[in-house]
């Protein structure tokens, strides 16, 4: 194998602050990424079967690992992003906080809902880049092309959300 092809097996990770190489990642072929993406859903039934409490316990183990490795995680974040040490330290602490929140509330959030008191709305979502306003450009045409409707499910308000959002059948 030529040196050129060997170099393409990995991608150098550079610190944007000083451009030095701080690591490397494997440069997977698009086909290998597609295979991995197709395999991921195979693990979903097992994850779902352990229920919210089991998933919460797994997340809390991850939280423990993050908490035990804050300095190392901050080192990696700082070297790969060019952030200051203070900025890099906020990220693992934030992850630990989010994990704690979701692990503690998942059972409540995933409990059977009162479907008679739920209102569903399809609204365009996606943000700046997906909307066509950002890097893809295109103005209104870009918005129509890239902005995908996504469902929003929310509890109905006592005043009646049906008055605020009309469905196609109301039009």
UniProtKB/TrEMBL annotation:
It comes from the Bacteria. One of its GO terms (molecular function) is succinate-semialdehyde dehydrogenase (NADP+) activity. Its EC number is 1.2.1.79. It catalyses: succinate semialdehyde + NADP(+) + H2O = succinate + NADPH + 2 H(+). PANTHER family: ALDEHYDE DEHYDROGENASE-RELATED (PTHR11699). Keywords: Oxidoreductase. SUPFAM superfamilies: ALDH-like (SSF53720). This is Putative succinate-semialdehyde dehydrogenase [NADP(+)] 2. Pfam families: Aldedh. Residues 11-110 form the Aldehyde dehydrogenase domain. InterPro entries: Ald_DH/histidinol_DH, Ald_DH_N, Aldehyde_DH_dom. Residues 150-171 are annotated as: Disordered. Gene3D superfamilies: Aldehyde Dehydrogenase, Chain A, domain 1 (3.40.605.10).
